[in-house]
Amino acid sequence: MRLIDAEGTQVGVVTTKAAMEAAEEAGLDLVEISPNTEPPVCKILDYGKYKYEQQKKASEARKKQKTVDVKELKMRPTIEDHDFGVKLRNAQRFLKGGDKVKFTIRFRGREMAYQNQGIELMQKLQGALEEVAKVELEPKMEGRQMIMVVSPIA
Q1: What is the DSSP letter of 71?
Q2: What's the rounded Cα separation, in Å, for the pair 94 and 147?
Q3: What is the model's pTM?
Q4: CA-wise closest residue to 75 among 43, 107, 47
Q5: Cα–Cα distance between 94 and 132 in angstroms, integer?
Q6: Model confidence at 16, in pLDDT bands (50, 70, 90)?
Q7: CA 107/CA 100 separation, integer angstroms
Q8: Quick check: 95 and 144 in contact, CB under 8 A?
Q9: 77 with 107: CB under 8 angstroms?
């Protein structure tokens, strides 16, 4: 196996027994770094410290990661202009924050006969949000609800 000592200098190709003795002499552990190479690469290091550093790197990577939430905005097909404006501003704020927005239009009773009003409302939303969002899921009916999902433009 190819051996790397505690300082990071390459010792060369040695037997397993010689590598184990060198690690024991240094008071550290012999860790196989790259088992698939020919010959395999081993390093003399403090395994507890190595594991701790790997854990810190992983937690740091998780900290920098941004989770994308899906915010839902519910409406009715007969929404007034001012209420529509409020929903639109909220959607723009969510999109600027990096979240996806799910628009839901709920139809009640005889409103089911006027689904074209829902489609017009969704098209109005698409037009208003075209510079900040792209449509991820086209408007579609699911039971008594019409649903559309938009995501921010990266």
Answers
A1: E
A2: 17
A3: 0.60
A4: 107
A5: 11
A6: confident
A7: 23
A8: no
A9: yes
Alpha carbon separation from 20 to 2, 11, 13, 24, 65 (Å, rounded): 12, 13, 13, 6, 40
Q: Are 135 and 95 in contact (CB under 8 A)?
A: no
Judge contact between 123 and 103, C-beta under 8 A: no
| Gap between the Cα atoms of 19 and 102, Å rounded | 59
Could you tell me the two tokens for 153?
Answer: 């433009």
Q: Could you report the per-residue pLDDT of 44-95, keeping only the tens digit for each?
A: 988 898 899 999 999 988 888 777 789 999 999 999 999 999 999 999 999 9
Cβ(33)–Cβ(41) below 8 Å: yes
Q: Find where tokens 């937690």 sit.
A: 59
